[in-house]
Structures are given as C-alpha cells and as structure tokens.
Amino acid sequence: MPETSTQIESLAPPPELRRSPNIIGNAGLGYLTDKLTAFNEGKTPLWWWAAFCPAAFCAAFVLPGMLIYQISTGVGVWGNNKPVMWGWDIINFVWWVGVAHAGTLISAMLFLTRQHWRTAIGRAAEAMTVFSVMMAGLYPGIHVGRAWFDWFMFPIPTYEGMWPNFKSPLMWDVFAVNTYLMVSTLFWYMGLIPDLALLRDRAKTPVRKFLYGVFALGWTGSARHWHNYEKAYLVLSGLCTLLVFTVSSIVGMDFATSQIAGWHATIFPLYFVVGAVYCGFGMILVLLIPLRKLCHLEDIITMRHMDRICKLTLLSSLAIAYIYLMEYFIAWYSGDPYERWVFSHRLLGGTYWYGGWIMIVINVGMAQLLWFKKVRQNLKLVFVMALLINMGMWFERFTIIVGSLYQDFLPANWGFYKQTWVDVGTFVGTLGVFFTMYLLFIRFLPMVPVSEVKGITPQANPHHPLGGGKGAKS
Amino acid sequence: MSEKNYGIMAEFDTPGAVLEAAKKVRAEGYSRWDVFSPFPVHGLDKVMGLGNSYVGLFSLVFGGGAFLGTLGLIWYCNTFDYPLVVGGKPMFSMPMSFVPAYILLVLAAAIGAFVGMVALNQLPRHHHPLFNKKRFELVSRDKFYLVVGSADPKYSETETRKLLEELGGTHIEIVEDN
C-alpha cells in the first residue's frame, strides 16, 4: 500500500466519531423529489383521516360554538372574574405565541447561522408558527369582550376622532402579533414557491396543475429568479429572527408594566422569549416524531435531527431554570412582602401550589433527562416528555397569571379563579383548528422543503464529484 | 404556421456540467441567456455576472418608510390630533414610539423583500414559452437547462446548437415563442 493513501486514511475520524449525513442514503435528486412529494401525490392514508376527523370536528363545531356563545352572551361565561381578569384566554394566548417561536427560531435563526440540518424541518416548523400565531391572535380579539369593537385597536380615522393609546404595551401587542402573523406567513409562502412549481410540473390533473400553478406565480427556476429569491429569503429570515426576540418580549411587557407582584419585573421580556422557545421545541417534537414515521421521512428527518432538537430543548430548559431561580432570588432580595408572598405561595400556598410544582418539576427537572443520549434516542419517551413540556409551560403561564392575580395588595382583591367549560371548549377548539390546518398542510404541500433539501446534497454541489464537478474522483 | 423563436435550450444532468457550460457560453460572448435549475446552483450568479440583487434595497426603502411613517402617525394621533395624557408621560417620546415603529419596520421590510423578489423576477406570470416544452417539466426535478435567447446578437440556430452540443447538452430543442 502506498504511503500517501495510508496517510489520508488516518486523517479521517474513526467511524464512531463521524457525523451522520443530513440526508441518509446518498439518494439522487430525482429519487429525493419522488420521495418528498409522495405523500402529497399518493392516496390519503387512513391515519390521516383518523386524525383529521376529530380535529376538523373541533374546528368546525366546537370553536365556532364556543365563540358564538361567548360573544353573544359576554365574557362572564368564562371563569374570569375580579380580581382574576386574565384567565385561560390570556394563558392560551401566551401559550400559542410561545409555540410559534421555536418555529421561527428553527426556520430563520438556524438559516442565518447556516445550519444545513435545519432545511429538513424548516418548513414543518414554519407552518407550526403560522398556524399557532393565528390561534394566538384569536384570543385577545375575543378577550376584549365586545369583539365587534376590535377595530378600535387599529388607528382608523373615525367620526369619533379617537386614536389608540400608543404608550401602552397592549397596543404594541396588536402590532407585534399581526406583524408576526404576516411576516411568518410571507416567509413560509416564499419558501413554498419553488416547491409549488415542482408540484405544478408534476401535476397529473388539470385542477392540480391550475391551483399549484396559480400559487407558484409562474416560477421557472431561472438563475436570475433564484438570485433575487435567495436574497429575499436571507432578508426575510433576518427579519424573522428579530421577531423571535420582539414578539414575546412585548407580550412580556404587557405584564411587566403593571404593578402586580410577580409581574412587575425587568426580566419578563427575556423570560417570555426563553419560555416561548422552550415550549415551541416541545411542540415541534410532538409534531415531528409521529410525522417522520407516518410519512416515511426517517432518512430525511433523521435521528440526528431529533437529537439536535432535543439538545436545543435542553439548552432552553437550562435558560428557563436560570430565570426561575433569578425570579425567586429577586423576590427574596427585593424584601418586598407582596413579592415574597406571591413567590412563596406559588409553591407552598394552599390554592395554586400544584401549578408551581408542575412548572418546576417538568420544565426544570424532567428536561434534565435529555442530557442522556439513551433518552434522546428513545423517541417514544421523548414524545411523552415533549407533551409534558407543553403542559408544563401551560402551567407556567397559569402560575404567572392566575397565581399573581388571585390575591393582590388589598383584601378587596382576594379571590379565586376556576375555569368553566367554555374556557376548556375554546382551547380544545383552537387545538382542533391548529391540527386541522396542519394536517391539510402536510397533505397538500410538501412538509419538507424539496428544493432546499436537494440543495444540500452532494449531488447539488457543482464542485463535488457527485454533482459533476471536476474534483478528485472518489 | 411560422412561430417566432424564443431561443434554444439544452439539457444537462448535473449542476457541475451546467456550470461549466455557462462559463463557456459566457466566454463565447453570448449575453441573452439563462440557466434553469431545481435549486440555486452555487457559483452560477458569479459566472452569469448577476452582481448584487436589489431586493435588499426594496426592503430598506419599505422598512425605513414604515419606521418614519409610524413615528409620524403616533405623533399625529397622540400629540397633534387628539393630545392624550397618560400618567403624566410626555405627549411624544422616542422610547414609547420606538417599539411600534420598529415592529412596523419589520413588517414593511418583509413585505418589501417579497415585493422586491416578485417584481424583480417579473412575477407573477402565467405563461412562459418554456412551459410549452414537455421536457422542461423536469427542471423542478433533477435536470438543468441552459437557454440561449433568440434576442442574443450572437444567436444562430446552427452555431448555437453546435456550441451547446459541444458542451455536452442533450435534448437540444428550439423553443417557440407563441
């Protein structure tokens, strides 16, 4: 054996240290295309109907029923009362905004940092963002009580000559959530254009050809188009990254600018961003673990992807643990009796102690299991953990909102909060709408961005031997 | 029925091959030609001499306009048209106006990027001469096409076809413009 070849051999890391590729199997471009569009073009599987029917039932009947009842009767049908003016509606608003954030973080921030593995899950994450922001945006609109006056939130010239108060973070929220919805929808749609063109080119029926064709805007794949497209994609992901930090910060400011003990803290904007991202990673895992199996995408959304999302979940859990710790420390260090009361009652109080314990045990305690590779590789366990993380984060918002409001400075403001069936029904309805839209998305649009995934294969690299480049033969 | 020619197209199997071909076509002095691919081919924009995209400029103008516009709107609403005193705070100040202005900057800059992309690419269009070619449907799958337009001063049906053949292009076809 010649000297040189042994030298080259020794430079390569041993097999156990080698990174597994982003796409397993070294498949050709045509094969990848067929594989990634198979679910959109094939027969609708039974599991899809099994998931779609209950979700669509909630979307079509439960949510509209609850909304009609609540809007026609009044906010009194909810458990909201004095002093707990914010109940499940705002808890769910914050929860849904939170779910959205991990989607943007994956699709935009990991794009900016050139994490190629993100391509396979970017579209699925971005779709999650779009649909959950829609659900989040619903809540403030109905929480105001008289939903037919929602237009008061926008600076529209009227006969009254009144304008919104721009000094209020609640007003900023209106802009932030609407911006978030529009920007993430644009980002998602722009990413879809080349794949819509792909589905148009592959369409067998005139109806499909027409519909995909309309939304593909006449995309040809010209190098000039790609040139502008890539730039626009870069700009949009930069802007979306800003939104990851902005939207939940503003939601946090809704709380922090009030005087309520437990809310009046400068850490709140950061707190809400970190919590949002953490909760969103939980939701991504809940969606992707079953879907990669059911849609046969194990080679595209590989174990390495799951491992990395788990690690990011762990990282955000550590950040949230730090913030919980800081919150308790500042409550003690401030010497403020109201702060101390609120925080000690989160864990030791007789009324809502369970919320505080659920949030600490799940969000801080259980997430530490993700340090172990054995746990990260056990997707069934990770799925259960991800569901619990979503629940834990829901209880975090419950603890923050109800736990701080139910007893404040004056005995006149000592009360109790319990949700009603309308609260629960509305939440179940939004879950139904979310899953209905998500299931329709994976059925009719490629869940994995086909053109982007093809773009990261060696076959797509013009300088790689597999891509027809003149590099060394291998 | 004589139809005007749009150009001549050649098919390539790999991004490397089409990149090489693009280099040669440019060296031959052609100016009105384009490459079509299922994903952006790395290095192609340099070979084609596309320079910097103006999408960023659209984004800047839209975003900057929205930022200033929102500041103006807030000043008009809360200071000029209906002065609103809230907690003794100043009628107009940067800290309270910055957040909504910044949020709308993000919104408008994003719309700007999208509008810029669509406008610079002259989309949406529901027809393109290349869509008449059955073979061209593979462009979104795994094939790469180099098209030399008939508007090119150096365009010649025989010479250009010969060049594309030499470069390794297959399925060389005339694209009719109708």
Helix and strand layout, with pairings?
The complex is a heterodimer of chains A (474) and B (178).
Chain A: H1 3-11, H2 29-41, H3 46-73, H4 88-112, H5 119-143, H6 169-202, H7 206-216, H8 223-256, H9 268-294, H10 303-333, H11 337-348, H12 353-365, H13 373-377, H14 379-405, H15 421-444, H16 450-455
Helix pairs in contact in A: 3-15, 4-5, 4-8, 4-9, 4-14, 5-6, 5-15, 6-7, 6-8, 8-9, 9-10, 9-14, 11-12, 12-14
Chain B: E1 4-12, H1 15-27, E2 33-36, H2 44-47, H3 55-81, H4 94-120, E3 144-149, H5 157-166, E4 170-177
Antiparallel strand pairs in B: 1-3, 1-4, 2-3
Helix pairs in contact in B: 3-4
Give an overview of the whole structure:
The complex is a heterodimer of chains A (474) and B (178). Chain A has 16 helices and no strands. Chain A has helices spanning 3-11, 29-41, 46-73, 88-112, 119-143, 169-202, 206-216, 223-256, 268-294, 303-333, 337-348, 353-365, 373-377, 379-405, 421-444, 450-455. Mean pLDDT of chain A is 89; it is low at 1-7. Among the domains of chain B are: 55-120, no CATH class; 146-178, no CATH class. Chain B is built from five helices and four strands. In chain B, 44% of the residues are buried. The model of chain B has no long low-confidence stretch (mean pLDDT 88). The chains are: A mainly alpha (474), B alpha+beta (178). Chains A and B meet through helix 2, helix 6, helix 8 and helix 16 of A and helix 1, strand 2, helix 3 and helix 4 of B.
